[in-house]
């Protein structure tokens, strides 16, 4: 079986973007692949965070993943900081990746914002850690949202340079991104040019998986749109980022395509369409929310599952990273 690896930061409550672009696609891979999923707390401290709530947020993220359908019996689910192989390999990769490569990463520019000098050096080398996350398991397939494509290309550059420079042809495999679905990039509800993100300062910009029916209805009602009604065909969405985003979300949540949504709702005004969308979101998310609450009633059980996952993950990653260290000459 091919090995897949993916991760998510415990930097807030997972958003609809995380769910449609990543988490939802991780579920079926549990049965067809050797699937490893990680709550990446080392990544979460690259940006401002609260040490008092980090561990709680990490557990909540794990509970959200399980509630979305990840089953610790069918995949390896663990917390990044519990497996030291990630940090060990990341240091080696810090010394393999070139500054020029990192300078081209658009996510750093987005996340660092205007005051780039004030960003942490961890945020800058984040893609090196991400490469280590994947390659510590020699995973070959990485199911992620479209926003991570550039980082995966960098991971391949790192793997290739490591193999070449240290005379270890074929040691690290090539990685393929697996970018799936009509909503591989869900955009902010307030600005159709920005991706929806759990670390966006505006809560109105995103649907959190834990938002209740009223919050969802309000956020969708306030979502930015243009004054035109829905077009009759998908071609009519091209220059309308906000309209395209909302149509894409309904398509993804109801298992159809943007064309399918427009066949049913083309010609409607956004007022009516937003009601349909909010209702579909509430129906889809409420069972996940109920399961998440049930899991968090027994935090010790979630923690025990994560500890077991870390043991399974370390059993794979430790020998690979020890071999990488030997190749480097340690
Ligand atoms: P965030 O930016 O919300 O903090 P992460 O960096 O933790 O998200 O990413 C977790 C996963 O969710 C990644 O696979 C990423 O590609 C995916 N993802 C994040 N935001 C979106 C989005 N707006 N649309 C689609 N996928 C997304
Ligand atoms: Na599996």
TrEMBL record:
Where along the chain is ATP bound? 9-11, 17-18, 145-147, 186, 195-199
Keywords, sorted A to Z: Aminoacyl-tRNA synthetase, ATP-binding, Cytoplasm, Ligase, Nucleotide-binding, Protein biosynthesis
The EC code for this enzyme is 6.1.1.2
Give the binding site residues for L-tryptophan: 133
Q: Where is this motif: 'KMSKS' region?
A: 195-199
Q: Name one GO biological process term.
A: tryptophanyl-tRNA aminoacylation
Q: Which Gene3D superfamilies match?
A: HUPs (3.40.50.620), Tyrosyl-Transfer RNA Synthetase (1.10.240.10)
Give the CC-aspect GO terms.
cytosol
**Molecular function GO labels:** ATP binding; tryptophan-tRNA ligase activity
Reactions catalysed, semicolon-separated, are: tRNA(Trp) + L-tryptophan + ATP = L-tryptophyl-tRNA(Trp) + AMP + diphosphate + H(+)
Q: What sort of enzyme, by top EC class, is this?
A: ligase
Family matches, as PROSITE patterns: AA_TRNA_LIGASE_I
Q: HAMAP family from the xrefs?
A: Trp_tRNA_synth_B (MF_00140_B)
Question: What function does the entry list?
Answer: Catalyzes the attachment of tryptophan to tRNA(Trp).
**UniProt record similarity statement:** Belongs to the class-I aminoacyl-tRNA synthetase family.
Q: Which PANTHER family match?
A: TRYPTOPHAN--TRNA LIGASE, MITOCHONDRIAL
- Subunit and partners: Homodimer.
Its name, as the record gives it, is Tryptophan--tRNA ligase
The organism named in the record is Belnapia rosea
What is this protein's gene name? trpS
């Amino acid at each position: 079986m091919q090995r897949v690896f993916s991760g998510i930061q415990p930097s807030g409550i997972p958003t609809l973007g995380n769910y449609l672009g990543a988490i939802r696609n991780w579920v079926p891979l549990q049965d067809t692949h050797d699937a490893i999923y990680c709550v990446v707390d080392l990544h979460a401290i690259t940006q401002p965070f609260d040490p008092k709530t980090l561990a709680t947020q990490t557990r909540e993220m794990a509970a959200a993943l399980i509630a979305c359908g990840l089953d610790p019996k069918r995949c390896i689910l663990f917390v990044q900081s519990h497996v030291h192989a990630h940090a060990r390999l990341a240091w080696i990769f810090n010394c393999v990746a070139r500054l020029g490569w990192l300078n081209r990463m658009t996510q750093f520019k987005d996340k660092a914002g205007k005051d780039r000098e004030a960003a942490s050096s961890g945020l800058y080398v984040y893609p090196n850690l991400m490469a280590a996350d994947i390659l510590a398991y020699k995973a070959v397939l990485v199911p992620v949202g479209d926003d991570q494509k550039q980082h995966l290309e960098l991971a391949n550059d790192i793997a290739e340079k490591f193999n070449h420079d240290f005379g270890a042809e074929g040691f690290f495999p090539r990685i393929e991104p697996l970018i799936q679905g009509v909503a591989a990039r869900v955009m902010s509800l307030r600005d159709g040019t920005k991706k929806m993100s759990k670390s966006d300062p505006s809560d109105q910009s995103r649907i959190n998986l834990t938002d209740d029916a009223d919050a969802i209805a309000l956020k969708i009602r306030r979502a930015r749109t243009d004054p035109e009604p829905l077009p009759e065909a998908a071609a009519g969405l091209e220059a309308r980022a906000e309209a395209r985003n909302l149509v894409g979300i309904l398509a993804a949540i109801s298992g159809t395509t943007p064309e399918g949504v427009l066949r049913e709702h083309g010609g409607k005004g956004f007022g009516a369409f937003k009601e349909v969308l909010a209702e579909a979101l509430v129906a889809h998310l409420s069972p996940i929310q109920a399961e998440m609450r049930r899991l968090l009633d027994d935090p010790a059980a979630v923690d025990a599952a994560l500890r077991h996952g870390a043991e399974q993950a370390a059993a794979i990653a430790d020998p690979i990273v020890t071999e990488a260290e030997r190749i480097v000459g340690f």
